[in-house]
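Cross-check.
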Amino acid sequence: MAIAIHQYFHEHGFFYFHSPIITASDCEGAGEMFQVTTQNLYNLKRDDQGKIDYSDDFFGKTTSLTVSGQLEGELGATALGAIYTFGPTFRAENSNTPRHLAEFWMIEPEVAFIDLNDLMDLEEDFIKYCIQWALDNCKDDLDFLNRMIDSTLLERLNSVVSEDFVRLPYTQGIAILEKAVQNGKEFQYPVSWGIDLASEHERYLVEEHFKKPVIMTDYPKEIKAFYMKLNKDNKTVQGTDVLFPQIGEIIGGSVREESYDKLKAQITERNIPMKDMWWYLDTRKYGSCPHGGFGLGFERLILFVTGMQNIRDVIPFPRTPKNADF
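Predicted model, tokenized:
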């Protein structure tokens, strides 16, 4: 599958771009990052206010393992037109679910002069290409998995590559879920406009309502990252989540905010330290261009293609809370 990813982007004129693994910025703005330091943790240097003093640390500031190569990828895209990153990514979320890892590999293309419709086209074309590549090149493996793991696997894979994905605004999606509740459907988590959809909501839309993959768009700005482009209603952003059967969200993307003033306002509103974001703001300060991209966790792709039920079974050495053996 890694070959398929490189092959797709090579055929479509993308540059392979290496983004840093050690970073001083939090792309997702959630603060759930693994810190990198050479300081003696048993004798930390502190300032007059009792805060840790990083001045004599290796990088002279707080640094962490990256949660995404996107911010740096945006610089590559605005310079080269279209780039993609494919490398290790780290999330310090205490998530013990069948869909989460603390260390995984992420594919992140970024394209200049792309709008929301073009972005959705790219997401759909890319993932269909990868699944079709598996069907064409890994037939024996997929036949075995269909026979031993999931008897609906091949049917599901062929359905995804042959169906057009539904393109669904968030507000319409919430209306469908609320109607389902009124008709007797029970969800563990309540449904209302403004919530971050749970996996059960995503899977209902994909598996029961539409019975095909869905690209959900135009989310409330409060539940998405600071860098997503604001819509004219000033309430929603041009984010996209590709929702698949079995696993829910498989791709997350967006058109990026190219306006300096709007981006700065979002950084301030969310209390993101400006000292870490000055370089990112500078890419808009003297003019920019429309651009966007998405992220796809490699292991989630493998999870879907193999029909396995737990993401820990599709990576050789899973890193999860309280588990870093071998």
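The radius of gyration is 21 Å. The longest strand covers residues 103-112. Passed to J.P. for a second look.
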